[in-house]
């Protein structure tokens, strides 16, 4: 079965954030007839979207996400740190689900010498 992988940042019952690697299954779908079938996930809800540009050396100290949101990284690399101390780097082409709407949240920083451009989809 085809799938897409993403990183989820979530808050546990004691308001500490953690990482979880998640896979979404894709099934053959007649998505855009008369074009041939392609692989799609189940449809999800979305409220808004916003484009973000995090400049070189940008650093966001501890913060929960202001709203549940998908992040699709379009350029650059950034490092996320969860409340449990674990760190993960994500780059262009990666997807992150920010689901830590309470507690200490996470830290984010741009790594490397390129700004990070992100499409953020709120839901």
Briefly characterize the structure:
By secondary structure, the protein is mainly beta. It has no helices and eleven strands.
| Alpha plus pi helix count | 0
Structural class: mainly beta
What's the CATH class label?
Answer: Mainly Beta
> Could you tell me how far the N terminus lies from the C terminus, measured between alpha carbons in angstroms?
27 Å
Which CATH architecture is right? Sandwich
Order of helices and strands: EEEEEEEEEEE
**Proportion of strand residues:** over 45%
Q: What's the gyration radius in Å?
A: 16 Å
Biggest sheet statistics? 7 strands, mixed
- Label the overall shape: globular
CATH homologous superfamily designation: Jelly Rolls
Count of domain modules: 1
Q: How many strands appear in the DSSP assignment?
A: 11
How would you describe what is shown here?
The protein has one domain: Sandwich (Jelly Rolls). It has a seven-stranded mixed β-sheet with strand order 3-2-1-9-6-11-4, with no helix packed on it. A four-stranded antiparallel β-sheet has the order 5-10-7-8, with no helix packed on it. The chain has no helices and eleven strands. The chain has strands at 2-11, 17-29, 38-40, 48-54, 59-63, 69-75, 77-81, 87-91, 95-99, 106-111, 116-122. The chain has 123 residues and is an all-beta fold. The two termini are 27 Å apart.
């Amino acid at each position: 079965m085809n799938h897409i992988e993403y990183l989820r940042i979530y808050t546990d019952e004691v308001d500490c954030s953690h990482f979880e690697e998640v896979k979404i299954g894709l099934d053959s779908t007649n998505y855009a007839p008369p074009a041939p079938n392609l692989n799609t996930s189940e449809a999800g809800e979305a409220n808004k979207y916003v484009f973000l540009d995090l400049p070189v050396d940008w650093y966001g100290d501890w913060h929960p996400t202001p709203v549940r949101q998908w992040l699709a990284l379009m350029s650059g690399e950034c490092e996320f740190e969860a409340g449990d101390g674990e760190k993960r780097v994500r780059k262009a082409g990666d997807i992150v689900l920010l689901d830590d709407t309470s507690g200490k949240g996470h830290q984010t920083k741009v790594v490397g010498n390129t700004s990070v451009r992100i499409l953020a989809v709120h839901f």
